[in-house]
Amino acid sequence: MIDIKLLRENPDKFEKAAKDKNAKIDIKAILRADEEKRNLQQKVEELRAEQNKANDGIAAAEGPAKREKIMLMKKIALEVKDLQGLYRKKSEEADLLLYQVPNPAAEDVPVAKDESGNELMHKFGEKPKFDFKTKSYLDIVPDEIDTESAAKVSGTRFGYLKGDLVKLEFALVRYAMDVISEEGFTPVVPPVLIKEKAMRAMGYMDRGEDEIYRTDEDSLYLIGTSEQAVGPMHMDEIFSEKQLPLRYVAFSPCFRREAGSYGKDTKGILRVHQFDKVEMFSFTRPEHSDKEHELLLSLQEKLMQGLNLHYQVVKICTGDLGDPAARKFDIETWIPSENKYRETHSTSTCTDFQARRLNTRFKKDGNNEFVHTLNGTAFAIGRTLIAIIENYQREDGSFVVPEVLRKYL
Question: What is the span of the domain harbouring residue 59?
Fold first, then answer.
């Protein structure tokens, strides 16, 4: 959620920022609702002052005058109650409208309508060269990825990992945990079902719930990334400055409906409804959040360079940013069978957008300020397995395990 005070001061800025993110927002309607809410709040405060004044005069009054003051106080109390109910309703309406406003992109983010405006930052390594005809990962490990059985059990876009690929998955997890823990990240396995309040606070529900799985009976939501469960851990808490930065590295299954991707990547495990992921998450002071973003990206690159996989880093443009992110970098890894790069990692700074919704603050010079939140993929397991299998394939149909992972196997 953005700061309503800043919106009042510069509505044109937020209108443009929303437009840059392809979000249609009625800023005037938000400001009208905010004004109505504040007017009601002022009336409630004025009536309470009258109520206190009437109450103070009751003890000194006698006879008819006393009864009159009591009646007046009761009348004011009813008016206060009615206005408070109206204020709560208007406040909820105003907050829902305010929730529609996306986090403005940082000044260094390229402005463009879609992913064609993303900016290439740099590349690592070279594309692998093969002196034989390359295969896709599904042809290299057909017995270890079983989508046929999964289709019978769960439907399309699911898969069973089997045998050595399971061991390789947990080698990746242990490798990521070891590297990232050294930077002061606390390992955590979060719940995968969270309440609506937590999911909404993270900023993924305001423009629809097409991607989210929900349990109707319990009103719980399945997380699409560990970030959605880790951020709310500290909802309504106040940190000391010494506690920041507070860093977590989480492992969890993740769930996405993949709405709107019908017909795309339906085979295999590239785009599935359930996948495992190792995710970094940071709470930091506002003045340190840009450096923290650089740290998350550097850790992602350290992990990928350890695997010696060829990749490129891309800065995401405004039209390709989600609501919470002010800036996002993607790592796109080379996939030989497709002869193109595929996104395997992303890292975002959400500034205080999520923290305002979570009411997560820190104490600074006697005042409470909102923290900044950041997130970054360590490994999306399925896509990383694909990259390893294809880039390390051999002519005989096998593949080599990267050296950095061998000690975990």
Answer: 4-99
